[in-house]
Structures are given as C-alpha cells and as structure tokens.
Fold:
Amino acid sequence: MKDRITKLFGIQYPIIQGGMIWCSGWRLASAVSNAGGLGLIGGGSMRPDLFREHIQKCKQATDKPFGVNIPLLYPYSDEQIRILIEEGVKIVFTSAGNPKKYTAMLKEHGIKVVHVVANLSFALKSQDAGVDAVVVEGFEAGGHNGREETTTLVLLQHLAGKLEIPLIAAGGIGSGKAIFAAIAMGADAVQIGSLFAASQESSAHEGFKELIVKANEGDTMLRMKQLVPVRLLKNPFADTIEKMELSGAPKEEMAEFLGKGRAMKGMFEGDLEEGELEIGQISSAISQVKSVAEIMNDLIEDYKSAYFRMFEIHY
Amino acid sequence: MKDRITKLFGIQYPIIQGGMIWCSGWRLASAVSNAGGLGLIGGGSMRPDLFREHIQKCKQATDKPFGVNIPLLYPYSDEQIRILIEEGVKIVFTSAGNPKKYTAMLKEHGIKVVHVVANLSFALKSQDAGVDAVVVEGFEAGGHNGREETTTLVLLQHLAGKLEIPLIAAGGIGSGKAIFAAIAMGADAVQIGSLFAASQESSAHEGFKELIVKANEGDTMLRMKQLVPVRLLKNPFADTIEKMELSGAPKEEMAEFLGKGRAMKGMFEGDLEEGELEIGQISSAISQVKSVAEIMNDLIEDYKSAYFRMFEIHY
Structure:
C-alpha cells in the first residue's frame, strides 16, 4: 500500500482519520498516527486555547506526522491558523470555505494543505488554489454535506482522470474492501470518519458511540438542506427537523429551533434525544466500539482479503 | 471474469443491463446479450401484447440468454408472468413488490428468478422466498428508489458476508473500474441502467439521450419521496415537484399534478420540459451516446485498467 499520499504526508497507510467536531481531539489523532495512518485534530469545535492545547498534547503523544482540520465557517479560523503555524503543525485540512483564503500563506510556511470538496468544480478550484491534495466527500458522509447529493461511488467515476493532484475519497468508507475499491477507482487514499468517531479513543460521548454501533440502514438521513445539509442520526431532535421540513417550515424557523450548541449537547455531552448527532451512513455497518489499533488492523486485513478475492477471481 | 452469476445465467461477463421502462425493449436487450452481458426487456412500460412482441423479437435477435424485468406494481404483472412462461423466457427479474408472490411458481417452470431490493432485510426476505440472486440497488439509481437512501457503497459493506445467494450491485455503476470495485466489495455481478439508457439501441427518445450525456453533478435528484421516491433529471416538471415538496404540499396534490403517463411523455415521446425523465446519478459521468458493443468493450477495458492499477500498486 504505497502511493502519492503516503509519500506526501510521510505515513505508512493511505488512511486518514476525518477531523470531526467533538470526536477527534489529540487522543484520537495521535492514536491514528501512531497506528500508521494520518490523525487529524478536528478544530471545528475548539476555541483557540483548547485547540493549542490539543496540538501540544498530540505532539507529546506521537512522533509521527499528524494534522489538523479547520472548517472555514467558524469565527475562530483566523486565530486557529495563526496557532497551528506557531505550533509547527505541518499538515492542514480545510473545509467548508474558499481554498484560496489560506492556501498560499500556509504553503509559504512549509505546510501541506488539503481542501475538502463535494464535486469536480470545487476540486478544480482547489487545485488552482495550489492545494497539495483534495478530499472528495460523498453523500454518505456524516455532518456537513454537499447540496448535490452526489455519492462517493459516482464522484470517483466523475472525477476519474480529471485532477493532477492526489485525491482522497471520503464518505461511506468503513472497511478495508471499500478502501481497496476506492483506490481501484482512482483514489490515492481514503478519509474515514464514522469508524473512528466510534473508537475507544474518540472523545464522543459513550452513549453516542453506543447509538452508532446500534444504527441500522436508514437510521441516518441528510437533513436541514435549506440551511446547510447535515447527515444526522435519527433521534427526537432529527424527527422534529424532518417534520418541519415536510411541512415546508421557513428556514428562519428551522435555524431558530436548531439554536446553538446542539452538536456539543448530543455528541459530547450525551443528550441523545435533543442533541444533534452527526454521523455517516456507514454507521449501519459498524457493530463494535474498538481501539484505533484494532480498527487499523482490521482495515488492513480486510483490504488484503479484497485484494486476494480479486486475485483469486482472475487466476 | 468468471463467477456465480455468469454460471447462473450462462453469460460471458458479469454485466446485466437494467430492465428500464421506455428504454429497454428487444433491441437493447438483444444487443447486450449478443455482446456477452445479460439483456433484460423492461416489462414495466409494456401492455401485455407489446410485451409478448418484444420477447418474440428478442428471441429472433439473439441466441444468447436474455431475461425480462417485471415491476410488481403495475396492473399487468399477472398477465406478463403468464406470457413470459408461454414464451419460454428463462430469466426473470422482479422488483417493487413481494418476492414470495411469483418465485415458487416461476421456479417450477425452470425459470431463474432475481429480485431487486434496497436493503438487507428485503435481501434476506428474497433469499427466504427462494430467489436465485438479488439485485441490491443504491440511492444513485435512476427511477424508483428505496426510502432509506442507502448508497451502493454502503449497501455493499452492510451486506458483506450476510447472504448465501449471489448479489448483483446496482446504482451508480457506469464504468469498468466501478464494476471492479463492486466485485472487490463482494458483488458477483453488476446491473447497469443509465449507460444503456443512453445507448444507440435504447428506445429512449433521442432528445432524452442528449440530456443524459449533457447532465452534470447535481442534475439528478431523488424526488417524490412522499409518494414513491424516484430519481429524476432536473427539468421544469421536476422543478415544480421540488417547489411543491419545499412548500410542504400534501401528497394527494402531488399525485394529481404528476398524473399518468409523465414518464412515457418524457422518456419516450421526448417532452423534455413537462415529462418525467428517470435516470441515475451516474449520468454526470456519461458523455457520449455509444453502441452497446462499444459500451461493453469500454467497460471491459476499463475493468482491466482498474485491475492493472491494483496489480501495479502491489508489485
């Protein structure tokens, strides 16, 4: 398993842990990096001081490369960018904003920059902005999602051969066979969120992790499309949102009902009824809370079995 | 490329053409079968006499195995089942209904039966009903679709190792690399709709084929979820449906606006404004109307290049 992404980041496996709000602090990121993948601290849910603390703790916890994820829609992004430069972070994933904003400046500091997109035109814009790679994220992904609802399978085929920079596939990937499939379709690596959100090292509330492993098909849906589309686990909060959507409620009313801090309440504090539980569709195929080391090992073994399956079919 | 499905049907490649309304008559089905795949006559849009005529013409046009698709939600299914038995059809795909209804009777006539599902529980029910294989169809697929919005990538991982009968992956597959990926993830074969809907041999209106090859990301959406979810190409008709959905229109009102014959009007007669244009999300990656022979050849070459890509990465 060697490719452009492993060389770019200096990692062993082309497996990147998604930088998720309320799930991926230093503990998860360092565990993934120590296991040979690329761990990312999810900056989205952290105030600047806490963000700095997580970076410092992550440096203590691993001597392997790790990175941070900065969604460009929160008020702290300027300050977070300043902090990560000060702290010598070498890999930054940006999402939900304009890749032109920080890319050139980050690259002047010798930082590798990756931008997250959900279609070809933003992938090309990111390439033009000078990023080192793009994450292409499909409809299956948890949390914030594209408006076009294009799935990972379709995105990979639509983008095939159209980018010069490396491509990281995300959304719906929860097994080694899916990693194998994504790479066969042209991805250089994958980004995995839900599986790591449900890991022992995730900072998600244990009650939320239990719901992820219990989730079945149809238990996550893309909601709040009138605001920003978000993939959510069904619960009383999500049911109310659905009712509002079906009755044609105006988006101001929905924004007011959503309020602030719903994701923290659900994912971090464990209010499983009224909190917002962001998770991917692949949670239906996750059946156990495991350590990161076990997850990585299982992914690699399952990848190998997909490889041997294809080898067997063809010889 | 040898596996359980090619043996089951006696075909060369594990590629099955979706039995689509208004697109797949005898001309398309026989062309796919002649090219080494499995062609299916789409019974859904045919009155009994026309259905018989298409079967008879297909028998004239190919000496290779072919089949028919019967959606169990139309009034003619009893009569269509009687006709296909009389005509000696040996392969039947059923969809949109209870697999118990006809499976035992069809099998007594020596007919291979496949049922189309969109989740694990219906796949297991179909297996219990005695079908020979299931088609598992994801959110990407054109036309009628599941309510749970599970994508093909997630379905394949969720179902991995849980079925004894062969599994055919459908939805979002429009290239050889996606066939390779689906098989690596455990599918025995794939079913392809959109690519064949846009083929020269498809009976779809030429204007509709032109729209398919022009379609970009986001140009198809899943609509009419309150009635039966259907993936549609965006056009003035679909835009009106979207507006009704966003304003919370009751489903009776939507059913009345939909009326009857919209799909024939759009897909067959070429009313591209007010007709219903059912097509898959993968149409964004389809750029040319080709003959079935070219499509099959391209799929196989692209499959091989995915295989060599993985071979190169690992040696």
